[in-house]
Design goal:
Structural class: alpha+beta
Largest sheet: 9 strands, mixed
Helix content: 10-25%
Number of strands: 9
Shape: globular
CATH architecture: Roll
CATH class: Alpha Beta
Order of helices and strands: EHEEEEHEHEEE
Number of helices: 3
Bound molecules: zinc ion
CATH superfamily: 2,3-Dihydroxybiphenyl 1,2-Dioxygenase, domain 1
Radius of gyration: 15 Å
Distance between the termini: 14 Å
Length: 136
């Protein structure tokens, strides 16, 4: 139980298909399945490199997406860092007891059946941190 490793780096983009094409052409990364996560108003696509490390491109799904707001305010670019965890509820509880705030109180639905939770960036020097528990 606990924190396992860095799972991926999330990058906010406006146009998912165009960005995927660019990353694929430039870095020969393997593109995983594009997934729409309506609950969070995003479309995500993982890009996998030879050693298994992953960059996740994230694009807004519709104009009231929180990510649309992020891009309008700050532009495209690095959006979040994702750590893989075991027992996400316990990890959240432990961090909450240390005064860490989350954007939502409960884990949300992530890509590929994962459960995710975002630590509020104010707690971490402006870094939006995603905790991710993979589907078992
Ligand atoms: Zn992510």
């Amino acid at each position: 139980m606990g924190i396992k490793r860095i799972d991926h780096l999330g990058i906010a983009v406006k146009d998912l298909e165009a960005s995927l094409k660019k990353w694929q052409e430039l870095f020969a990364a393997k593109v995983g399945a594009i997934e729409e996560i309506r609950e969070r108003g995003v479309k995500v696509a993982p890009l996998e490199f030879e050693d298994g490390s992953v960059v996740e491109l994230v694009a807004p799904l519709g104009e009231d997406s929180p990510l649309e707001k992020f891009i309008n305010e700050r532009g495209e670019g690095i959006h979040h860092l994702s750590l893989e965890v075991d027992g996400i509820e316990e990890v959240m509880e432990r961090l909450k007891n240390k005064g860490i705030r989350f954007i939502q109180e409960e884990p949300q639905k992530g890509a590929e059946g994962s459960k995710i939770a975002f630590v509020h960036p104010r707690n971490l020097g402006g870094v939006l941190l995603e905790l991710k528990e993979k589907q078992k």
